[in-house]
């Protein structure tokens, strides 16, 4: 059995706490590795190393720091196949999807290569007589990030790329379900020229997270994961005086207007609802057709597409639409919620409950499910399922559809499919959700825009990546400078008052 490590002080380090978690191959159900779960002492060691290394890194000019990220991009491209394979083996997603995971992180790194430009400060010449004023953005110091299992490459890069570009040291506590890619990323960063101690990976669970939250040296905490943990980390981190940004769960609605191109809408829904087995915070989990006729046409278009979905292990290459879910616990939770849907009166139009894959009976595969006639009181509507389950809520009007998206406690992403520019514009302007797609089902903003939901999908003020990340990972310092004149005219012994 492979024993994974931490990555501390530029080296792979064995865990010393004596506690481990199992890392599965979700396609076979086998435990393929053990990951160490750090205790407070191991975290404190990483923090001390980070604090020492960070001073020199912050003093390295931003262009040199950017060059390390530039080299890192080259290494990510060089090792793309290897990273994607390791990612799929622990997460279960298909190889093309795993490459997308790496690619979307890589794009954030590319954006951060612009650090010299992005970190330029403001300057006011002659703010007063002989007085200049300038603001600079300085690194926070030691920063930390806690990431979820579903994007083990992209989400760590969302955090560590801007943190490092800004001159911080970064401690990553990745998901204990798929920690191998984060460890590989740390190694690649050092191969790219990052000094030891600037990126460290400390594996663990709540104990490691609590050590981060209660460490006085750590200045900021970034979190992405489920909403209850996001709330806990936000409250605890803020109470301990840290800068915190937490991104939580989602329930993304897609509104299908009567004039939408139904084939296009159904294709979009199938990709956005079932891709990555529904384990995306931007997955569409609720379809809202407007009008009974639209609903009937949508279901008719969806069913054959869903029935044709190919579910299988990543080793089947491009021939698979989605793979297993991450753990048997995740699978059991999805099955439990599906059963509540049936019990609470929703119509299970496509029933994936008996799905089984020959040769992979112990894998964590879940067949695709489609519910119709779902109502807002049902558990399958209220809770995030994070599986290949799409719920259809029939709305009588556009206003009713809009209200559904607005009344839901989550507000990560939403989409509208229509040919009517006026309806699309109204929707984008009024809906209280952070990321909107217009005939685009998964509107994940690119690296140079920012990513973030509203409502219970986010806790904190600044979004991920884009310009917000450079604000999150720096503090502003403003200098008012006056150089008394007089030397030119000979010595002057009285300090001049401002006039
Ligand atoms: P999770 O909340 O279980 O775990 C996330 C991280 O928190 C992991 O590193 C984990 O070790 C840690 N953690 C777990 N329990 C903890 C506890 N009790 N105390 C402290 N730390 C704890 O989430 P997950 O299952 O890994 O990821 C799926 C969730 O993440 C979904 O809810 C999904 O919507 C969300 N997500 C959100 C976004 C976004 O940008 N909004 C992006 C991706 C995933």
List strands and helices in order, with pairings.
Elements: E1 2-3, E2 6-8, E3 11-13, E4 20-25, E5 30-36, H1 40-59, H2 62-78, H3 80-91, H4 95-112, H5 115-118, E6 122-128, E7 131-139, E8 142-146, H6 154-165, E9 169-173, H7 180-191, E10 199-201, H8 206-213, E11 218-224, H9 227-239, E12 243-247, E13 252-256, H10 262-274, E14 284-289, H11 292-307, H12 328-343, E15 347-350, E16 369-372, H13 379-382, E17 389-392, H14 398-407, E18 410-411, E19 413-417, H15 421-430, E20 435-438, E21 454-455, E22 458-459, H16 467-472, E23 474-482
Helix pairs in contact: 2-4, 2-7, 3-4, 4-6, 10-11
Residues 146-151, 173, 175-176, 205-206, 209, 224-226, 229, 247-250, 281, 384, 386, 412, 453, 457 line the site of nicotinamide-adenine-dinucleotide.
Query: How many helices?
Result: 16
Please mark out the parts with pLDDT under 50 across 5 or more consecutive residues, or reply none.
Answer: none
Overall pLDDT, averaged?
A: 96
Q: Beta-strand level of the residues, as a percent range?
A: 15-25%
CATH superfamily of the largest domain: Aldehyde Dehydrogenase, Chain A, domain 1
Given the C-alpha coordinates, what overall shape results? globular
CATH class of the largest domain: Alpha Beta
* Ligand roster: nicotinamide-adenine-dinucleotide
- Gyration radius, in Å: 25 Å
């Amino acid at each position: 059995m492979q024993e994974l490590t931490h990555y501390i002080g530029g080296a792979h380090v064995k865990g010393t706490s004596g506690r481990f978690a199992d890392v599965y191959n979700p396609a076979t159900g086998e435990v393929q590795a053990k990951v160490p779960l750090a205790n407070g002492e191991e975290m404190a060691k990483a923090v001390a190393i980070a604090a020492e290394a960070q001073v020199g890194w912050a003093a390295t000019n931003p262009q040199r720091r950017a060059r390390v990220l530039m080299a890192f991009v080259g290494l990510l491209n060089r090792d793309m196949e290897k990273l994607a394979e390791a990612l799929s083996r622990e997460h279960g997603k298909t190889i093309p999807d795993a490459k997308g995971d790496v690619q979307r992180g890589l794009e954030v790194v590319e954006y951060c290569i612009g650090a010299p430009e992005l970190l330029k400060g403001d300057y006011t010449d002659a703010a007063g007589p002989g007085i200049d004023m300038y603001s600079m953005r300085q690194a926070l110091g030691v920063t930390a990030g806690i990431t979820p299992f579903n994007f083990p490459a992209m989400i760590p890069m969302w955090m560590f790329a801007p943190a490092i570009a800004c001159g911080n040291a970064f401690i990553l506590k990745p998901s204990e379900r798929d920690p191998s890619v984060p460890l590989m990323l740390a190694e690649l960063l050092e191969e790219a020229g990052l000094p030891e101690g600037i990126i460290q990976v400390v594996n663990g669970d709540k104990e490691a997270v609590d050590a981060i939250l209660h460490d006085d040296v750590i200045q900021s905490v970034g979190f992405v994961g489920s909403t209850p943990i996001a709330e806990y980390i936000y409250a605890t981190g803020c109470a301990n005086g840290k800068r915190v940004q937490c991104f939580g769960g989602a329930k993304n609605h897609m509104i299908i207007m009567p004039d939408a191109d139904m084939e296009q809408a159904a294709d979009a829904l199938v990709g956005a609802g079932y891709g990555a087995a529904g384990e995306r915070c931007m997955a569409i989990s609720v379809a809202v057709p407007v009008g009974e006729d639209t609903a009937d046409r949508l279901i008719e278009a969806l069913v054959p597409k869903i029935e044709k979905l190919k579910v299988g292990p990543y080793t089947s290459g491009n021939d698979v639409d989605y793979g297993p879910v991450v753990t048997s616990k995740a699978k059991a939770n999805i099955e439990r919620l599906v059963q509540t849907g049936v019990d609470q009166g929703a119509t299970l139009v496509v029933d994936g409950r008996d799905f089984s894959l020959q040769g992979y009976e112990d894998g964590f595969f879940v067949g695709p499910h489609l519910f119709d006639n779902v109502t807002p009181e049902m558990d399958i509507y209220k809770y995030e399922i994070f599986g290949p389950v799409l719920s259809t809520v029939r709305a009588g009007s556009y206003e009713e559809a809009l209200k559904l998206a607005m009344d839901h406690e989550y507000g990560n992403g939403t989409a509208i499919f229509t040919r009517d520019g006026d309806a699309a514009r109204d929707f984008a302007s009024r809906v209280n959700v952070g990321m909107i797609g217009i005939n685009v089902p998964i509107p994940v903003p690119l690296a140079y825009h920012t990513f973030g939901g509203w409502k219970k999908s986010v806790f904190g003020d600044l979004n991920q990546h884009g310009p917000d990340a450079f604000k999150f990972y720096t503090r502003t310092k403003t200098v008012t400078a006056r150089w008394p004149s007089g030397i030119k005219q000979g010595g002057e012994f009285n300090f001049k008052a401002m006039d």
